[in-house]
């Protein structure tokens, strides 16, 4: 826990920010020029739809790239680049592209571009982390410029969800941090790695030109900087980027409003199962029992988060409602550590049972969470060193397996096939996201069966068994589901808060004027 000096410094900082906020409310905002400025709490690792796996890259791609389909909040497919599709059989699906769709450079988007995008992902030489999602594709046929036929080696239930993948022009090579051309509502004008990306409206967008002409996304990992830029008006929209402690100050300002909506993105604590301590399921369960999630949600998140029991949020069709609860029990945690052979060497003394390293980003709230978990594990006899890293370095370490403990959030889960991607033994990076090296033959069998089963009812039973096993083995520990909190200039309208933090509705946003802005 923070000592008295830390708490005093935090209180003084909050007071200074709030005072500055209130004194600057009357200034004229850049929103008057019609430019939308969004702040992200971190910078994307990649803005290439064939490679991107982090939340920030995905959210930018929702503004810059288009895919064959998109999904509604219930997981139902909707047309995007494809005006329609037909499943001729469980292993053959035909898509018909819209007429006249163009990329940002003016080139017409054809079936060849669709074929090449997926062929690039499937080529093992390109080491795409999405390859396993499409490995059942046996053949992609393009009988004409507007028709794409996918033939599968076997039925694959998540196939349509996998069609939410940005299409790039045929022959596009991966170019490091340089985003490939897309066909979305906004084109990339300038990209400064780790700083900002500037977008402009694509007048030829097939869904109709966006209503706001210019969009700038700033990458601001410091929560106080994001807050102050909101206060000055140099940022006018932040989704899940204002710390709960600062929300009351936001509500006192006449230029900003807050909206809150249910979320579906699950934060979790990840374990490296190759580690000699964490390879023991008793140790992982002891760590979970030692963490008071309810108290953290109540104090640090100010009630804007709810404890999770799965990577799937309650209400999602495949969520298992019978998962045994795992509640805070520090006494049971210490007993499990004793049983695992890690007895406390000196009772209430300073010597730990063993030491672990906990990696997290530089997000201030995430660091506060890490500090609380550090103290709670200390009370159980586990010494924890916190390493707070710049986002790109942090995410790279996690993908490489260079960690013992870490925390992240799964964003945009559209299908329970996430369990294959995250927990199948063959899905260690770069092939997938089994970052902790979890291996369980029964889970491998079930998640493979879940991909082949087309009945939603049967799939729900399959993934219910998976969730039960994972709640026992704890390769990751689900922490909480954050509620989505949007802070925006009150003159902005049209942004739709979705459970998975989707940014596709940016194209529908407008700046209201006069009395309309007060509504």
Task: Give your account of this protein's structure.
The chain is of the alpha+beta class. The protein contains 14 helices and 21 strands. The strands form 5 sheets. The protein has a 7-stranded mixed β-sheet, sandwiched between helices. A 6-stranded mixed β-sheet has the order 14-18-13-17-15-16. A hairpin with a 5-residue loop joins β2 and β3 (77-79). α1 runs parallel beside α5 and α13 runs antiparallel to α14 (456-473). The protein is globular and about 75 Å long.
Q: Are there runs of 5+ residues with pLDDT below 50, and where?
A: 1-27
Strand-pairing-aware structural class: alpha+beta
What's the mean pLDDT score? Answer: 90
Q: What oligomeric state is this?
A: single chain
The end-to-end distance, rounded to whole angstroms, is 42 Å
Number of E-type strands: 21
What's the overall geometry?
globular
Question: How are strands sequenced across the largest beta sheet?
Answer: 8-9-10-1-11-19-12
Strand residues, percent: 15-25%
| Estimated radius of gyration | 24 Å
Number of continuous helical runs = 14
Overall helicity: 25-40%
Reported for the largest beta sheet, the result is:
7 strands, mixed
Main attributes of the structure:
globular, seven-stranded mixed sheet, 14 helices
A few lines on this structure:
The protein is an alpha+beta fold. The protein has helices spanning 4-23, 55-64, 111-122, 159-162, 223-232, 247-251, 281-290, 293-299, 330-339, 364-379, 391-400, 418-423, 441-452, 456-473, and strands at residues 35-40, 69-71, 77-79, 82-89, 92-97, 137-144, 147-152, 186-192, 196-201, 214-219, 237-239, 256-261, 266-271, 305-307, 354-361, 382-389, 405-410, 476-482, 484-489, 492-493, 510-511.
């Amino acid at each position: 826990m923070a000592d008295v000096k830390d708490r005093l410094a935090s209180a003084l900082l909050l007071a200074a920010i709030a005072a500055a906020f209130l004194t600057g409310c009357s200034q004229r905002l850049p929103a008057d020029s019609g430019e939308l400025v969004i702040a992200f709490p971190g910078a994307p690792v990649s803005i290439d739809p064939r490679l991107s796996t982090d939340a920030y890259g995905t959210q930018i791609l929702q503004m810059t790239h288009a895919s064959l389909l998109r999904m509604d909040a219930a997981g139902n497919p909707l047309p995007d680049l494809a005006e329609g599709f037909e499943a001729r059989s469980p292993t053959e699906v035909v898509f018909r592209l819209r007429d006249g769709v163009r990329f940002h450079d003016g080139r017409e988007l054809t079936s060849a571009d669709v074929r090449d995008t997926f062929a690039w992902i499937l080529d093992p030489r390109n080491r795409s982390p999405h390859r396993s999602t499409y490995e059942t594709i046996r053949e992609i046929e393009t009988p004409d410029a507007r028709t794409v036929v996918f033939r599968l080696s076997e039925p694959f239930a998540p196939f349509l969800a996998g069609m939410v993948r940005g299409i790039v022009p045929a022959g596009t090579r991966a170019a490091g941090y340089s985003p490939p051309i897309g066909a979305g509502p906004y084109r990339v004008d300038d990209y400064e790695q780790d700083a900002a990306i500037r977008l402009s409206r694509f007048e030829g967008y097939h869904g109709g030109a966006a209503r706001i002409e210019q969009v700038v996304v700033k990458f601001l990992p410091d929560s106080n900087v994001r807050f102050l830029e909101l206060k000055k008006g140099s940022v006018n929209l932040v989704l899940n980027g204002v710390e709960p402690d600062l929300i009351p100050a936001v509500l006192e300002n006449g230029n900003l409003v807050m909206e809150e909506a249910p979320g579906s993105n699950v934060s979790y604590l990840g374990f490296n199962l190759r580690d000699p301590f964490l390879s023991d399921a008793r140790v992982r369960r002891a760590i979970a029992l030692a963490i008071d999630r309810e108290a953290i949600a109540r104090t640090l998140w100010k009630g804007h988060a709810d404890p999770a029991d799965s990577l799937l949020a309650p209400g999602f069709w495949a969520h298992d409602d019978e998962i045994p609860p795992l509640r805070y029990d520090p006494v049971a945690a210490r007993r499990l550590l004793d049983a695992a052979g890690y007895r406390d060497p000196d009772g209430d003394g300073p010597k730990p049972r063993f030491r672990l390293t906990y990696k997290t980003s530089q997000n201030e709230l995430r660091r506060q969470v890490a500090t609380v978990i550090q103290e709670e594990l200390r009370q159980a006899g586990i010494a924890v060193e916190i390493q707070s890293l710049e986002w790109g370095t942090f995410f790279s370490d996690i993908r490489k397996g260079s960690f013992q403990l870490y925390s992240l959030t799964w964003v945009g889960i559209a299908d329970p096939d996430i369990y294959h991607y995250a927990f199948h033994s063959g899905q260690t990076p770069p092939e997938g996201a089994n970052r902790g090296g979890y291996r369980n033959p029964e889970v491998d069998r079930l998640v493979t069966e879940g991909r082949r089963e087309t009945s939603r009812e049967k799939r729900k039973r399959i993934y219910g068994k998976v969730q039960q096993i994972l709640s026992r083995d704890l390769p990751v520990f689900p922490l909480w589901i954050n509620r989505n909190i949007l802070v925006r200039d009150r003159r902005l309208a049209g942004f739709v808060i979705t459970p998975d933090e989707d940014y596709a509705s940016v194209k529908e946003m407008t700046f209201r004027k006069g009395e309309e802005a007060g509504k």
